[in-house]
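Molecular record:
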Amino acid sequence: MRKANLILLLIAALPSALFSQSKAAPGAEPTALIHTTAGNLTCHLFPKAAPIGVANFIGLAKGTKDWTDPRTHQKKHGVPLYDGTIFHRVIPEFMIQGGDPLGNGEGNPGYEFKNEVSPALKFDRAGRLAYANAGTDTNGSQFFITEQALLGQQGDMLNGKYTIFGQCDDASVALVKEIARMGSDPSNNRPFKPVIINHISIEGASGAGSKKPVHTSH
């Protein structure tokens, strides 16, 4: 399986960029509450800008979308993919990345789908929620959340190449900063004690009824 190479483009040099306050999407849009062992992340989703990506994220979070376990190659039906996964790659002044069922950056849900990019959505503010990929139209389950605005060359590396499908609020950005600064292996940016995603619940439009209890085991 191809390794999601989001980080490989940027790991060499990431100078500080200006911090930008995140802005919440309209309340009518679905909101993802990412329950982690370090706290909760609240991200408003963009179903109009990225309908395929948002539907995929909600389906994998709620267990309503089938996926294939990369460890056993067995089809999973009614099983939330994100429960028990980790933030397997963290980089200060950049982002945190998770959603890999293998937990090493090489896992995917057994399928890929196309990019959805919009000129109106750029990595010009903190808290952008986007899909990691291994090239154009290779999105799956892995996602990342930026901790600051990525401007100039940094932004050019990402804008138009990665699907932005949500915006996380200011409190979430603060938590992203904390997670990004946890001790990690410099060779692969993997945390020594990775933060676990217990469960992702969906509220609002297209997400009503996701009341699954939070799990605490990996």
User: Anything to note?
Assistant: Residues 51-62 form the longest helix (12 residues). The CA atoms of residues 19 and 148 lie 5 Å apart.
